[in-house]
Amino acid sequence: MQRRAVRLATGLVAAVCVAASLAACGGSDDGSSDSPGAPGASVPTGTPIRVGFFNPSTGPLASPGVGTGSKAAVKYINSDLGGVNGHPIEVIDCAVDGTPETSISCANKFVSERVVAALDGYNLTSSATLPILTPAGIPLVGMIPFDSVTGSEATNRVYFGAPQAAYLIGALQAFQQQGKKSAVLVLADTPSSHQTIDMVLKPIGAALGIDVTGLYYSPTNPNFTALASSIVSSDPDVGGLIASPNDATCTRLLQNMRQLGYQGTVLLAACTGFIKQAPAQAANSAIYSSTWLPTASTHAPANSQEELKIASKYIDAENGTADYYAYGTFSLFADFAKGLATAPAAELTGQGILATLKGLTAFPGFLGPELTCGKATSPNCTTQILLFEVQPDGTTKPVTGTFLTALPDILARIPGAS
Amino acid sequence: MTPPPAALEISGLSAGYNGVPAVRDLSISVAQGEVLALLGPNGAGKTTTLLAAVGLLPALRGSVVALGTPLRGRRVERTARAGVSLVPAGRGVFHQLTVAENLRLARRRGGADLDETLGHFPPLRPLLGRRCGLLSGGEQQMLALAKALLAGPRVLLVDELSLGLAPLAVRGLLPTIRALADERRMAVVLVEQHLDLALSVADRAVVLHHGRVALAGRAAELRERRDLVEAAYFGHTDPASPFEPSGSAP
Amino acid sequence: MGEFLQFVFLGLSTGAVYAVLASSLVGVYAATGIVNFAQGSIALWAVWAVAALRADGTLVLPVGSVGLGSGPMDRVPAVAIGVASAVVWALLAHLLVFRPLRRAPVLGQVVASVGLMIFLQALVTLRFDTTSLQALPLLPAKVLTFAGAHVNVSDLVLAGAAVAVAALLWAYFRFTRPGIATRAGAEDERAARLMGLSPDRLAAVVWAITGGVCGLVAVLAAPTIGLDPTSYTFYVVPALAAALVGRLASIGLACAAGLLLGSFQTVILWLGTKSWWPGWAQAGLGDALPFVVVIVALFLLGGRIPSRGEVTETRLAAVTIPRLRPAPVALVLAAATAATLLTSGAWRFGVVTSAILTLLAMSLVLLTGYLGQISLATMAFAGTAGFALSKLTTSAHVPFPFSILISAMVATAVGVVVGIPALRIRGAQLAVVTLAAAIAVQSFVFSNPALTPFEGNLIRDPSLFGLSLAVRSGTDLTTARFALTVLVIVALLTLAVARLMAGATGRGFLAVRSNERAAAAAGINVAATKLLGFGLSAFLAGIGGCLIGYSRGQLSDASFTVLAGLTLLAMAYVGGITSVSGAIIAGLIGPLGVLYTFLTQTVEAGRYYQLIAAGGLLVTAVLNPLGLAGTTGHHARAWLSRRRRPPEAPPPGAAAPTGTEPAGTVPTSPEPSHAA
C-alpha cells in the first residue's frame, strides 16, 4: 500500500508540475516587450532601450490602470513617436504588491537583466528598491512618489509629477480659501500612509489652520459603511480619500457617506469613475490629479486636448482600466521618452539617462505642467497640481482654471517636497 | 426435506489482533429459533468470535454466512442492517442521549414494534425521557437489548449479558430472550461467564478454549455433565466423551 | 451612545460570518471529531464564484470555466450556484481528505485541514480575477434609525440569517433522526455502527449542510465586508475562538460568541479613531482579540470539550532517530557548498534561502515531529527575531554574531510563552491556539505602524572583523561570503540539533510525544520538556528569521505572514516531519527555495507554488503519513536489508498490516473490550 501510495503521490506531484509548466508556457507572458503593433509612423530599428517597470498589479491595493497605461504608452512611443530617436522601448514588467519583498525581488530582477532605467508605477514601497538600484547605476523614474521615503531625497531619481504633499497642500489651501475649517481624510493602512498622515497631513493642516484628521482603513477588509460612519460622525466640512488604488473604493465610500446624510464636500483622490457610477451623489465633490483627464477636456487648453485625444485612443484600445492611473502612467512613459529624445547624442546608459532627465528645463510635460528637473533637494520636476470640482454636467473643472501651485512655504516644511 | 438453512453459519473462522489469531479454524452453526451458549474462560476467543462475525474484527480466514448471505468483508453497518445485531459487552448505549432517542435510533423499517418491544421491558417505559448515563446497570442492559430487538434481527449476538448485573436482574432478562427467540424464530448466540444461567435458557452450548472448540453438545445434557464442562474450561478434552469437540454437532 | 450602537450593529456583518462558521465548526466536530481549519476557505470560493457569475455569467471551475448565459447573472440563481459550489467543495473535502483520515493521528488531521485551507485559497487567487471583480450588492440598502444610530437593514438581515442557521443546525442535531444519530456516533462510533448507522454518511450530510450555510451567509455578507482573496480564509480563526467558547459542543453559544466578537472588533475599530485612543493600539487589536478569547476559553472550558469515542486507537508516525555518520554528513555539506559556489544571482539566492528554510523546518521537526506538539506559529517566532534584529542593528548598532544571538533569545522567550498553554492544551486545540497567536503577532506586532519606523524595518548588513558579509555588493545580488556564512550557521545548528535528538533529550521528547502520563510516571518532567521544546524550536526559528532579515535587507509584515508559515508547515510535512533529512528536503522545496526558484525562473510557474505545496501536503497527508524522507529512508533500508540477507518467508499468520517500523516507533494495539 505504501509503495503504491508513494508512486501515486510522486506521480501526482510530477503531473501537477508538468501541467503547471505547460500552462505557464502556453499562458501569459510576464516578460518582455510589446512589439510596436500600431500601424503608423516609422518603425524604430535601433537597439532597444530596456527599462524595468514596477507594476502594482497584484495585492489588496492593486492598481489595474497602471498596467493599461504602460502598455498603451509603449505602443504610442514605439509607433507614433518612432521610439526614442529610433530606439524602441522594451519594458520588463514586474508585478509588485505593495510589500517591500516584491519591490526588492523586482529590483534584483532588473539588475540581473541589466536595464538602463526603472520606472515606478506608483509603488508604495519604492524606497526598498533604491539600495539595490543605486549601486547598480539604475535611475528610478516615476510620476508621483507614493513612498514618502523615496520622495525625501533627490539622489538617483526623477519624478515628473508633484510630490504627494503638494496635492494635499493644494487641496487644503483651496478649501481654506472657500472657508472650510475641518477635514477628515482616509488612507489605506500601510506604513507609508502613516508617514503621509503623520509627517505630511498634520503639519499642513496646522500651517493652514484647518483641523485635519487622518483615518485608516484595512486594505484587505475595508468596511466602507464603518469607514463612512467614522468620517461622517464628526461632520467635517471636507471628508474623503487621500489616495485610492481604484475607482471602486471611491464610489463605495461616496455612496456610503451620502447615504448617511453627509452634505459636505467629498474629496475623492484622483478617481473619476464615481461620476458615472453615482451621478446623483457626485455633486459637491472634488478630485486632484497630476495630469489632465478626459473628464476635464472641455476645460483644457488646446494642446492638452490634442494630447488627451492621443492618449485616449491608445488607452481605450487596450480595453483595460482607463482611470487616472492609466493616464498618469501614460504621461510618465511619454515624458520619459520625449525627455530622452531631447538629447539626441545621449548615452543610453543609466547615468546618461539620469543626467538627461535631470537636465530638463521648462520642458512641456505630456498632459502636465512645465517641468524643470534637477533640483538638489527634491526629485520632483514640478510643484503644480490640478484640483478639479465636479460640475453638474459631469465634467471636472479646475478650481483655478488651470494648474494650482502648492504654497511654497508650506511645501518647504516637508522634506524632499521642494 | 432438507433442513432449513442455518441462521448463522461460521466456517473455518480465524480471527485475531495484529495478525495473531485468537480464534483458529472455528466452525459453528446456529439454526433459526435456536439459542446457542458460547462458553469458555477468559481469553478463549468468545468475544473475538462475535466481533469477527459482525465485521468489527477482520477475519483472517474462513467465512461467516447469515441466512444465506455471506458477511465477511462487509462493513459493520451493512451487516447490522442485514439483520445481525450484536449487543456488545459495553452495552453500546449512548449515555448523552435519552432512552427515547436511543430507541428511536434503533427503530427500522421492517423491524419490531416499539410498543411491543417495550412490553418485554416494562421498567423502561417510565424512563423514556431520562439520559442513559443516569440509568442503572440493569436498566442500561435492558435498553441495549431493546435496541437490538427493535431492529428485528434474524440473528442476535449477546456478549456478556450478565456482566456487572445482579443475578436477579439477569434472571429476568434471559427468559425474555428465550421467549423472543421462540416467538420470532431468531437465532441467538449468548456469550456468558455465568454457566448455569446460560445453560438454563440455551438449546446448545459450545465451550471454547484457546480459540478452538473444546466441547459441544445439547445444553440439557451438558448441565448434567458439569465435570466435562469444567475440564473443557481447563483445556482437557476427553476422547471418550460423548460430546463432539467440533462445533457442527446437531 | 448612538455612535457606539451604530458600530455594534455595523459589526454584525462580520459577526454573522464568524457565527455561521463557528456553528458549522461545532457541527463538523460533532460529526467527525475534526477541527476544520478549511471552513473559511470553502466560503471563500463561494463568495468569488458568485462575484464572477454576477459580473459576466461565467461559472469558474477549478479547471476551466463555463459561460452560463450571455450576460451578468441575476442574483438569485447566482447565489444558488455559489452555495452549491460550497456544498460540492465540502463534500469533496469529506470524501477525499477527511474520510480517509478518520483513523489518522491528530497531527495528520490538522495538517490535512490546514492544507485544504491554503489549497483553496491558492486556487481562488489563481482562478479568479482578483483585481477587478466586485461583490455587487445583494441585500436591500435601507437604513433605519434606532436610538440615535443609523442601522443598516442588511446587517440585521445577516445577523438574523446567522441565528437562523444556528437554530437550524441545533434543531437538526436535536430533533431529527440523522442528527441524533450523528451525536450518537460522536459519542461511540462502534456502537452506532452496530446499530446499522453509517457515521460516514451522516458526516457527509453534516458537511454538505455546513458548507452550504457558510457559503450562503458569506455570499450575503460579501458586499458589506468586501471581496478579497485571503480574509475569508482566516475568518476561521475568530470562528474557532467562538466555537471554543461554545466548548465545541454548543451551537447556540458559538453563534452568540461569533456575533459578539464581530461587534466587538468593529467597536475597537471605532475607538481607534478617537484621539484619546493610544497610538500603539490603533492597528491590529481587533485581530489579536480572537487569540485572547481562545486562551481564556480553553483555560476555563478546556476540560469540558467533548472528545470523540474512537473505534481503534491511532498509530503515530514513526520517528527516525538521527544518526550522524561522517560520510553522509560530509557529502551533504560538500553538495551544499558546491551548490552555493557554482550558482549565482537568483539561483544562489534560492540555495541560500533553502538553507535558511532547512533551519525553519528543523524547528518544526523538533517541535511537532519529535515532541508531538502541533504548532502553527513558526513564522511568528522567526518574525519576532527578525524585527528584534532590525531594532538592534539600526538603533543599538549591535555587531554581527551578537545581534543574531540576542534576537534569537527574544524569539526563544516568545516561544516559551506560547508554550505555556501547551502544558494544558494538546492536539487540534493547541493548533488553534498557535494559529491565533501567529495571527495576533502578525497583525498587532508586525503590522503595527507604531512599532515600525517610517523607513521600514531596515537591517544593517552584517560584518565580521571588518569583513563585510552583506548579501549584496554592487551588481552581485548574493555574495559568496554571505551565502557561506549562512551555510556555516545552518550546518552547525543542524548538527547540534541532531546530536541533541539522538541523546537523552531526544528520548525525553519522544516519550512525551507518545504518552505523557507514562513519561511522567517514568520520571520525565513533562512540563519542562515541553517548554524546552518550544524554546529550542523558537530559537532555531529565530536564527532563521534573522538570516532572512539579513538576506533581504529590509523586513515588513509581508515577510513573515501566517500564510507563508502554513506553506512552510506543508512542505515540512511533505518532506517528512519526523526526521532531519526531512527538514533538508523541506528546505529544498520550501517557499522561495530551490524548487521555487526553478518554478519561477525556468518554468515561470511561480504563481502556482502555493497550490502545488498545498496539493502536495494533501496528497501526503492522505496517502502517506511518513513524508518523502521517511518513505525514501524506509525503502532504502528495506533495499539494503534485502541485499544483506535473502528474504525469509514471513511466519504464518504474522501479516504486518502497516509496514515495518524503524527505530523509535511506539506501536499501539487495540485491545478487545473484554478478554473472551
From TrEMBL, chain A:
Keywords: Signal. Residues 48-372 form the Leucine-binding protein domain. Residues 1-23 form the signal peptide. The keyword Signal applies. The keyword Membrane does not apply. InterPro entries: BCAA_transport, Leu-bd, Peripla_BP_I. It comes from the Bacteria. Belongs to the leucine-binding protein family. This is ABC transporter substrate-binding protein. It comes from Frankia nepalensis.
Automatic annotation (TrEMBL), chain B:
InterPro entries: AAA+_ATPase (IPR003593), ABC_transporter-like_ATP-bd (IPR003439), ABC_transporter-like_CS (IPR017871), BCAA_Transport_ATP-bd_LivF (IPR052156), P-loop_NTPase (IPR027417). The keyword Acyltransferase does not apply. GO terms for biological process: L-amino acid transport. GO terms for molecular function: ATP binding; ATP hydrolysis activity; branched-chain amino acid transmembrane transporter activity. It comes from the Bacteria. SMART domains: AAA. Pfam families: ABC_tran. Coiled coil: none annotated. Residues 8-235 form the ABC transporter domain. Keywords: Amino-acid transport, ATP-binding, Nucleotide-binding, Transport. Belongs to the ABC transporter superfamily. This is ATP-binding cassette domain-containing protein. It comes from Frankia nepalensis.
Automatic annotation (TrEMBL), chain C:
Its main location: membrane. GO terms for biological process: amino acid transport. It holds the Pfam family BPD_transp_2. Residues 655-668 have a biased composition (Low complexity). Keywords: Amino-acid transport, Cell membrane, Membrane, Transmembrane, Transmembrane helix, Transport. It is a multi-pass membrane protein. Residues 642-676 are annotated as: Disordered. The keyword Transport applies. One of its GO terms (cellular component) is plasma membrane. Belongs to the binding-protein-dependent transport system permease family. LivHM subfamily. This is ABC transporter permease. It comes from Frankia nepalensis. The lineage of its organism: Bacteria, Bacillati, Actinomycetota, Actinomycetes, Frankiales.
